[in-house]
Amino acid sequence: MEEKLKNPVWDSLCETHRSFSLSYEDVKFYNPEICPFGAFTDTTKTAKALNEYAKLTDSFFLVSENETPIFDENFVVLDQKIEGCQMVLEKLVEYPITEEIISLTNDHIEEIHNLIWLVMPGYYQKRTFEMGNYFGIFKDKKLVAIAGQRMQTDDWIEISAIVTHPDYTRKGYAKQLTAHVTKEVLKENKHPILHTTKGNTAIGLYESLGFKLTRDMNWWYFHKK
Questions:
Q1: pTM recorded for the entire structure
Q2: How far is CA 104 from CA 112, 119, 153, 156, 183, in A?
Q3: pLDDT tens, 22-54?
Q4: For residue 121, which of 82, 109, 196, 206 sits 20 to 30 Å off, Cα-Cα?
Q5: Rounded Cα distance, 46 and 171, in Å
Q6: Do 40 and 119 reside in the same domain of the chain?
């Protein structure tokens, strides 16, 4: 599992999510309708792959622990390098779940998409819902908090899309949902992991549930020229 965690997008596309994979010779991307993420094992192949993938979508990410992708400035533009980190569950710390947590279905796709883009715009597609299971909390007859599953392999599942509507924060919804999804992953006999940006205040929340920082994981954000 340790080897797979070094290149999580790559291994997810090689295993559980291989049906979503687009391959460009040592570079793999998700179908952009699912998720605009890619990964590589050879930096010399990334420029050509980025040029090809840019024909399918306007903006996208390459994800790597410490490698720097090569790109062709005539075709794509690097918007930013997002410095992130990976966290892996060491041992789940029990946390009381007092809210009703609902398993979300296809009927909720619009609500999920709208809430995530309100709080954290830029990466989530409506078909991202197909990557794993999603759970939510409803208040006042609307979806106000979400957590779900994204990248997956035979060994681990990534917890992602942990968002709360700005009008409903500081009520413990994110922590309860994270704890719930973590337990769902453990039921499948897989290791829960997650990714976030360096310095994110949510890191403390994740650590309080038993997650620990394990490595850097950088997100190179491009758009086509």
A1: 0.95
A2: 9, 18, 22, 21, 16
A3: 999 999 999 999 999 999 999 999 999 999 999
A4: 206
A5: 43
A6: no
